[in-house]
Amino acid sequence: MRKKWASFVLVIAFIMAFSVLSACGSNDEKSSDQPKQESTASADGTGKSDETPSATTEAADPFGKYAETLTVKEVLGYGPPEDPKTPSGLTPDQNAYIKDLKDKLNIDLKYMWTVPSDQYEQKFSLTVASGDLPDIMDVDIRNFEKFKSQGVLADLTEAYEKYASPTLRKFMESDGGQAMKSLSQDGKLYGIPGFEEPFLSTQIMWIRSDWLKNVNMEAPKTIDELEKVAEAFTSGDPDKNGKKDTYGLAISKAIISWGFDTRGLFNGHNSYPGGWIKGSDGKLAAGEIQPETKTALERLQGWYKKGILDKEFALKDDNKVVEDIVGSKVGIVYGEWWYSNWPLNLNRDKDANADWIAVQIPGIDGKPGKSLVPRVRMGHIVTVNSKFSNPEAAIKMINFYIDKNSKAYYDTNKPENGYVYNWFVPRIYNPVEMETIYTEVNKALESKQDQVSEDVPYFINVQKPLDAAKKFLAGDKSGWGLYMSRVSPDGGWGVTRKIRDNKDYVYNEFYGTATETMVEKGAQLDKMLGETFTKIVMGAPISEFDKFVDSWKALGGDDITNEVNDWYQKNAVK
Amino acid sequence: MVYKASLGRKVFTFVNVLFLVAITLLGILPFVHLLSVSLSSNVAAMAAEVKLWPVGFTFEAYHYLGKKVEFLRSLGVSVERVVLGTIINMVLTVLAAYPLSKSNEQFRFRTLYVWFFAITMFFGGGLIPTYIVIKETALLNSIWALILPGALNVWNMVMLLNFFRNIPKDMEEAATIDGASQWSILWRIYLPVSLPALATILLFMMVGHWNSWFDGILYMNSPEKYPLQSYLSTLVTSINKKAISLDDLNALENVSEKTLRTAQIFLGALPIMLVYPFLQKYFIKGITVGSVKE
Amino acid sequence: MKGNAIQRRKMRWEFPFHMMLLPGVLVTLVYAYGPMFGIVMAFQKFDPVLSFWKSKFVGWKNFRYIFHLPEFNQVLWNTVLISVLKIGFGLLVPLLLALLLNELTKNGLKRIVQTSIFLPFFLSWTVLGGVLLELFMLKGPINSLLSGVGVEPIMFMGDGNWFRAIIVGSDVWKGMGYNMIIFLAAIVGINSSLYEAAEVDGAGKWKQMIHITLPGMAPIIILMATLSLGNILNAGFDQILILYNPIVYEHADVIDTFVYRLGIFSQQYAPAAAIGLFKSAISLGLVGFSYFLAYRFSNYRIF
């Protein structure tokens, strides 16, 4: 027995010795690495003096070519090329954008790695932890804040001032410079915001108009009307096949999610779960614990009982809900402006009778519903590693990408020529792109032109809907998805912008990064919400809601509320 | 072998066959379903109308796949990985299992070694440190990153050593007296009589290499080096967040067709399934251990 | 003097053993022990930017955080219950199948059965999840069958107990081919002369199974049982994540899904590492315990 222990101890000693060794080993590696990096940095630092003159001479040129090849290291969250016309077997390194970048700016873009987008965050943190950051990084707001506080990010103020192309400037000024200001600290700009119009998140309702006709009803304006329509869709045989095989409203097991969820219905009840709404006392309050939420839940409970909701909605993820929509099993779904281009178009492919229209969400008290809209919609931020010698390269690359998508390259910049847009970083889009598309395309349609204005940024994105709209209006059904989402006044964006102009929305006032208690307790609160709400809808006593509110507050909700209000005091755009 | 079956025996055999056939169906049906989906039209697949027979029959998915370089390329990587990985696994496992199957008297350090290996079944450093070690040993982005870290699977080794122990000792003793070295005892006596066990772990190793996808994604830096299963995992877009960006939307609107995805999943499982029948005879026919005296 | 000579002979005798182990030891040392420095993460307030060298040490705080989460006990209980059922049935069913399959006399049928039992192992839970959901829907085939014999439709996936049963059942089904092969290999490894002798003694098939086959398989059965104990806190991550839903959280949330939610919500690496360490310690304890039990009572070393 003693011998066994002895060997056991030996093993442990072995392990410890080795771990220490390996730690030292990698430390050594680090220290031998560091000077190298510093030396390149200092070389660039000294080099800067003789490089800056040349840089200043070309300071005015946002597209100035480097005299010596500049290598830029990046990482890429990768999705397969989306266009089936992309040459088979193309790899991200062979992306035509990268070749052009080398030709035009003499920048050699090297991907340290590419990884499927699902795994991006994980691999990115592996890279960060193993100590080699890329030169130019496209990060989310959470990593941005973290990096900023660790001093990892380069100051881009000067680079932006000198090198930003007119189009990029126009993009950044489209919101009055708000987004950029939110990324600045002490007058230093730490990132180029990839922001979008917040109204893209507006909840609207999509409804089968052919079914409406079949049951002789109008598109609902209030929740009560909606209930009647949904009942008719459930038991009035809206598809006229003589079978009771349809139901009213499609929702998935995720109560609050990115789509096919119940946000729109809650919003119609003036309830805003997941949002922080300014109360009459000027303080922010969480939407999920307000009495309006209870009313909405009661309504959903009634609908579940009547069969308006799928009996098994709680088991279905978004894929399953999409199957029901495509399979003509359901006639109403809450969501955003883009549904017509996916998945409603698939339903039309499947079922020749199918037709969908977009309407503002129904509300209570005879008024239309007001959707929750974020104050800021910032998906990603382009940042530069402070150790990188040429921060202006990031700005130039953004210029390059925007320029590559202008009218001038319309004929060459095509997937079949090896241009894969989602394999190029950094990309900054036109923040008001949807509005640009809408107005430009409608203008062209009115004046019967075949082309949208030449100088519009991201020409392809605007021209494509115009082509689709022309096709659709000429009787070709395949253009419906794009036309209905982006062009039609009664389509997704058409309805959304009306809501925007009528100010029929409510702002989610909190847009900071997760607070300390959110990080610690958020996952549990989320789970509790999903669990309680689902059970209530499926028939649990409504008093469960009050219990939920109490536990929510006790289990961290109150702390979160305080933290959010502290944040609001300091940061909010009032 | 003449054997008179009793009535009870006949009934048992009948029920047994019936039961096993039912189990067989349970195993096959999912594949029939997959095959049917891959041979259906995309809208029928998206509307979940396909059960066990194609709806709107078409070969389009397979036709398209035939031209898809990505699929074939990653298939090549997978084959390379399985061949290299299995050989190395096998050598290391056999070499480690043999000495450890000896008794403590025959090999004094046995217990020390065994626990040295066993500990790793329970404790691991986690993702980040493993990544760092792989990076520091310069394996990143090379196929060795998928092979070396798991080159000795302790679980398989422990299983093999248990099989080795069951080998009757008299042959070995005779050989030792004749002056045979340990290497030749392993090679000439242990391996030939352990074919069923070797076939078992061989199959596990191959399947393990074939099925694993996550390491490919972590350690390979570009998609052209992905093995098949890693590549297949890139085809499924799952959106796991609360708001959807315009880029996500583009991905959704153009997401690869369900039938195409299914066809690739189906084809991805085929090659390894074909390996199995070749190994099967070792599980069915016993190896007669010769010259064993009771 | 003589002792030394013996010692030296012994060393020479053992030398090839060390050589054989060398490659395995090296690989294990580098790739299994090498990363273990990462265990410190469980005791840190880990931040990728600071990595292991500079992240702050916080002692047992991560463990306290995890153990004090209000749902932890429920989650732990779910995990243990589901995995014990999985381990139990996951051993019993393949064992039974291997024995039954061994009774088949037609080799062709034997091969077909064997191959198809193994097939589900090749499908990922992502693929199987959709199929399973479809099977157990209110209007799915299982409920149709049941209504044929007059049973009211059951919402299987929405009922905690049924859900657990499906989780366990489908896992056993998916993995049974794998374990069955090990058992088959064990059966095949039994010296066939034993059966011949038994037949001469007039023992029937049943008696042969009880007295020859099972005892012959015993070491492998014990080995598999012991090693699976190490999985007692792994109830299956992908499977549950794909199949579960808010109604059955209470019955189906297990350690791994729980950690995953913490992770996606807030990138909490350190608590996840703490849970990992906790799991490792429990597994080692259980396996170690049964190792010594087996050694103590039957003088058999599992490994």
UniProtKB/TrEMBL annotation, chain A:
- What species does this protein belong to? Cohnella silvisoli
Any idea which UniProt keywords this protein has? Answer: Signal
Q: Where is this region: Disordered?
A: 26-62
| Gene3D superfamilies (alphabetical) | Periplasmic binding protein-like II
Please state what the protein is called. Answer: Extracellular solute-binding protein
Q: Where is the composition biased (Basic and acidic residues)?
A: 27-36
Instruction: Determine the domain of life of the protein's source.
Output: Bacteria
Span of the signal peptide:
1-22
Keyword rRNA processing in the entry? The reply is no
SUPFAM superfamilies found in the cross-reference section: Periplasmic binding protein-like II
Q: Which InterPro entries match?
A: Bact_solute-bd_prot1
CDD domains, A to Z: PBP2_AlgQ_like_1 (cd13580)
Q: Does the keyword Signal apply?
A: yes
UniProtKB/TrEMBL annotation, chain B:
User: Where does this chain mainly localize?
Assistant: membrane
Localization per record = Cell membrane
Bilayer topology: Multi-pass membrane protein
Give the keywords, sorted.
Answer: Cell membrane, Membrane, Transmembrane, Transmembrane helix, Transport
Give the transmembrane ranges. 12-32, 82-100, 112-134, 140-164, 185-210, 262-279
What range(s) does the ABC transmembrane type-1 domain occupy? Answer: 75-276
Entry similarity comment: Belongs to the binding-protein-dependent transport system permease family.
Its recorded name reads Carbohydrate ABC transporter permease
